[in-house]
Design goal:
The protein has three helices and six strands; from the N terminus they run βαββααβββ. By secondary structure, the protein is of the alpha+beta class. The protein has one domain. The chain is globular, with a radius of gyration of 13 Å.
């Protein structure tokens, strides 16, 4: 599992997906659903919550019939398929891994 600082995680996301954070793509470690913050917003989730959920919770937690109900902050984290982001105050936060870019 990749472990990186928050600053490095953000830099990698910008390199992969660009500056627009709503377009950053994450993959659920349980069901494989690929999602963005924009997907959550379009489903009616408030922007701030959508931003946090996109990298820590499958969209199925908010939208029935899409994805599953998995969350990185649950008992089993990301099943070893995610990343650990170290915050400036040294907390370690488990998050979903980045998805591949769309072709």
């Amino acid at each position: 599992m990749v472990k990186q600082t928050l600053e490095d995680w953000r830099a990698e996301a910008r390199e992969r997906f660009g500056e627009k954070t709503a377009a950053w793509r994450f993959v659920c470690p349980k069901c494989g659903n690929v999602q963005t913050t924009q997907d959550f917003v379009e489903a009616g989730v408030e922007v701030k919550e959508a931003a946090n959920m996109s990298y820590q919770g499958c969209i199925g937690r908010k939208v029935q019939g899409k994805g599953c109900d998995w969350a990185a902050f649950g008992l089993l984290g990301t099943l070893g398929k995610g990343r650990i982001v170290v915050t400036p105050d040294s907390r370690e936060v488990e998050v979903f891994d980045f998805a591949e870019n769309e072709k």
